[in-house]
Amino acid sequence: EVQLVESGGGLVQTGGSLRLSCAASGFTFSTYEVNWVRQAPGKGLEWVSSISSSGSHKYYADSVKGRFTISRDNAKNSLYLQMNSLRGEDTAVYYCARAQDYGGNQRGFDYWGQGALVTVSS
Amino acid sequence: SYELTQPPSVSVSPGQTARITCSGDALPKQYAYWYQQKPGQAPVLVIYNDSERPSGIPERFSGSSSGTTVTLTIGTVQAEDEADYYCQSTDGSDTYVFGTGTKVTVL
Description:
The complex is a heterodimer of chains A (122) and B (107). By secondary structure, chain A is an all-beta fold. Chain A contains no helices and 11 strands. Chain A has strands at residues 3-7, 10-13, 18-25, 34-39, 45-51, 58-60, 68-73, 78-83, 92-101, 107-112, 116-121. In chain A, strands 2, 4, 5, 6, 9, 10 and 11 form a 7-stranded mixed β-sheet that branches. A 4-stranded antiparallel β-sheet of chain A has the order 1-3-8-7, with no helix packed on it. In chain A, strand 7 and strand 8 form a beta hairpin. Chain A is globular, with a radius of gyration of 14 Å. The N and C termini of chain A lie far apart (40 Å). Chain B is mainly β and 107 residues long. Chain B is 0% helix and 42% strand. In chain B, strands 1, 3, 4, 7, 8 and 9 form a 6-stranded mixed β-sheet that branches. In chain B, strand 7 (83-89) and strand 8 (97-98) form a beta hairpin. The A-B interface holds A 35, 37, 44-47, 50, 57, 59, 61-62, 95, 100, 102-104, 106-110, 112-115 and B 1, 30-31, 33, 35, 37, 41-45, 48-49, 52, 54, 84, 86, 88, 90, 94-101.
């Protein structure tokens, strides 16, 4: 059974840092692109960042570029998101999601974790 | 930046058909994906590549595409289908975009 389990969420002050982790199991982690997607309270889904299967390619939403860093450790089947210079608008539930290539290099997110809540407060 | 536009809400009676649209300029060239999200839960993929249904998703969920608009159709709506629905695609770059989301209410 595919499982993605996030951890590391919590309360942090404006300008502070936090590192999220996502532990993967039930599939060959090293062969899949994985992503972070967030959802602010009462709002819609927002894609945050993606990392290729090898870790060589990383992409970010403009809203987090330069502040967040995505990484992975395929030996530990783990995905990470280092979040620096946090702002109030970063308050959200952060989901890790596996990207499935359905052909033609087009991908959807076929498995999601349950999410980790990050609250940024002054 | 690229946007995918959905109606904020759709209301439907049990047993009727619900249709949710998603509009974006790149949709003629890029596939769309649809997710269902119930309160307090993670999203679930219900349609991929515009019209394909993942295993385990009921047959009443279907998808279609026409020009710059894709449509998620829920046939014979049941109370359990009440949820938020999001489309997702890309503008052809290496980034992803989600639609604005549609709340489906079963009357």
